[in-house]
Amino acid sequence: MTLILHHLETSRSMRILWLLEELGLDYELKTSQRDPKTMFGPADHQKLHPQGSWPLIQDGDLTLPESGAIVEYVINKAGAESWRRTPDQADWPDYLRWMHFAEATLQPYLLMHLVFSKLPKQAPAMARPIVSKVKEGVEGFIINPKVELYMKMIEAHLTGKDSFLEGGLTGADVMMIFPLESVFARIDDAGKKYPNTKKYVQGIHGRPAFKAALEKGGEYKLAPLQD
Amino acid sequence: MTLILHHLETSRSMRILWLLEELGLDYELKTSQRDPKTMFGPADHQKLHPQGSWPLIQDGDLTLPESGAIVEYVINKAGAESWRRTPDQADWPDYLRWMHFAEATLQPYLLMHLVFSKLPKQAPAMARPIVSKVKEGVEGFIINPKVELYMKMIEAHLTGKDSFLEGGLTGADVMMIFPLESVFARIDDAGKKYPNTKKYVQGIHGRPAFKAALEKGGEYKLAPLQD
To answer: Which part of the chain is the GST N-terminal domain (chains A, B) (predicted)?
Structure first.
């Protein structure tokens, strides 16, 4: 049975494509484009699964959404044990922690950052000064302090490292790459503020499997991360 | 070694407290209050872990944040196998999917809903009509459609069920209870629109372990869910 990956351009599903390339699994790729106006993917994707989200994988009767679940599933299917941790391993809690942190803690603030950054441009010209104040207020009170807190933590963690856990890349890196790419694409001065993290992301972008994924996946505005 | 749970009133950590009660593990509870003005928890919590978030558990040398990671850790520590799924079980992918969905997909839109719902009240009186329009625009374009899509999917999934997977409660239920409580607390008419889901939440709120957790954890505005 060949795995099918449903991929949306410039989205979370890029990391699954990268993982599939790293693990050398046989797979079929189905790529969708975003609507240039709304930036949403095609609505008929919901026919495949009611969640209507990307990435989505199909493997025989299984149709599975959710990056975290897909990463675990793909690693297990490939029998790629070094990419996972299990309860008998000392760094299992840390593995789980980064696996969840990426989307549960860091990414929600980046989503809010994206939504608020677009508000002033979309407001009528007369309302723009007020809307800009609202944006700056929420960014200053909630979004920026959280993103900075988390990025400082990551920057300290990644000092001298090219993977989140000891002993090479794991699912934790697959999960973390997307929010980190988003940080460098959207947060001013991120490259200066978080040099270890930048080096880490560039290390992943330099991998042959990542380059192969970039070639196959179509538009991906978040990579490669330039100097 | 006794597990320590760092808990913040009316927050995600309530579900870990509930889980500890269900599993009958020995634990020590340390509860923090929110600042009544900012609604943030105490900043010195960051001394325990740079992420500065709740729930946080300590177990000997281990200090672990992130609900999803903590749920897996606690279940494993208690040897409560029926509360987890492993790769050899057919419903493992589904288990992982709900484990991640709760915080990675549903909760971010509920966080945005909360942030936007507060904007008009916090704006100066003259700016309020414009800020209300912004709020309604983002709610109508992004937040409400997503929350409705996900809640319809959950409502269909929970028809006639009192757990997300067959065979009783698992970590997936522990993860899902918090965003679902948030939906009923914040979304108008949620009780009417999602009766199966409401019944499911009320089922959990009726459990002795949940009631014990409510008594021990201090203020928890999201439960019990009333008729």
So the answer is: 1-82
